[in-house]
Amino acid sequence: MSFAQPYWLLLLLLLPVLMYIYRRTANKRHVALQVSRQVAMRGVKTWVVYARKWIQALRWVVLALLIVAVARPQKAWHEEKIEAEALDIMLAMDLSPSMLTKDFSPDRLTVAKQIANDFVSRRQYDRLGLVVFSGGAFTQCPLTNDRRILQAFINNLQVGRLKDGSAIGMGIATAVNHLKGSEAKSKVAIVLTDGEQNAGVVGPIKAAEIASALGIKVYTIGLGTDGTVMSPTFQNLDGSFVFAARTMIFDTQLLEDVARLTGGRFYRARSAGDLQGIYAEIDRLEKTKITTSTVHHTLDLYFWLLDAAFCLLVLEMLLRWGPLRVITS
Predict the structure, then answer these.
(1) How far apart are CA 283 and CA 256, in angstroms?
(2) Averaged pLDDT for residues 50-59
(3) Whether the predicted model's global pTM rises above the 0.85 cut
(4) Whose CA is closest to 259, among 285, 221, 223, 220?
């Protein structure tokens, strides 16, 4: 809070002087014997006797409120008008059973969802969407500015809703198909997978060529450690998975080619820290251009003080001429 005319507050320094003068001259002003009620003549003091000692304080409070009101207290704030050259970003996430592999704690999919959510929370001015793929692919969430909705979709991702397989090309193609109608100057697809292409009618290279022709940049992320890991081998009728030690095959060359064809980059994530760093680097590389203008606003508060002063003044008059009235003799 600030004051438009703060020099009026100097008058507050006069209040102690006025109060002192008032008390010094109080006896000279009252030449008659004053009592609050006739019953006080018999030596009985009522609450009114004590209240009269403080009634004058209301006038001092009223005077202080009026002085502060004249100084015009104001609440100041500012608004930022943001003009953002936003990006459209589609996340394409692998939901094949191998995403439950336990070389990440507790598994690859859980870590991927957590870090993707962090990435989404940092993209304040962009539209983002979500594609999921396994044996097939579909758009889980279209491009949106509502980050909470997208994060809810990411949190609800589960393995087993699509047929088994790794249709990486279909995941890329679905993301590209959704981005092609975008009017954004920059369009990006981020593809996260832990397997090799083994399903789908569109191959990753063909999908990358389409993306390149449409001006869509594709970043690819290969998720998982090398060697033997505990991975799902069989799904029970109740939907649970049986785990066993497996040696995972990872076609990094294919993901590198996809990224290179579109002007993007390929990243290898062997730990949660690697994956977090990869999303942070993509966040830096694909930064939204923002211009801001600041508008200052003020809200006058003096009328609240005037209302309070008026109410206190009316209360003081009602008390002084009502239950606290003076009887002279």
Answers:
(1) 19
(2) 69
(3) no
(4) 220
Here the tokens at position 1 are 């809070």
Domain with CATH 3.40.50.410 in the chain: 87-287
Q: With cut-offs at 50, 70 and 90, classify the pLDDT of residue 221.
A: very high
The answer to whether 4 and 296 have CB atoms below 8 angstroms apart is no
- Tell me the average pLDDT of the chain: 83
CATH architecture designation of domain 87-287: 3-Layer(aba) Sandwich (3.40)
Q: Are 161 and 95 in contact (CB under 8 A)?
A: yes
Q: Which residue has the higher pLDDT, 290 or 64?
A: 64
Separation of CA 325 from chain center: 58
Q: Where are the beta strands (DSSP E) in the chain?
A: 2-3, 34-35, 73-85, 87-94, 127-133, 137-144, 186-193, 216-223, 228-235, 241-247, 266-269, 289-300, 327-328
Rounded to whole angstroms, the Cα distance separating 27 from 107 reads 88
Stated length of the chain: 329
Tokens, residue 85? 């050259």
Say which DSSP state 287 is in: P
Measure the CA angle with vertex 18, ends 12 and 24; round to 5°: 155
Integer Cα distance of 239 and 161 in angstroms? 10
Q: How many angstroms separate the CA atoms of 55 and 65, rounded?
A: 16
Token digits of residue 170: 């279909």
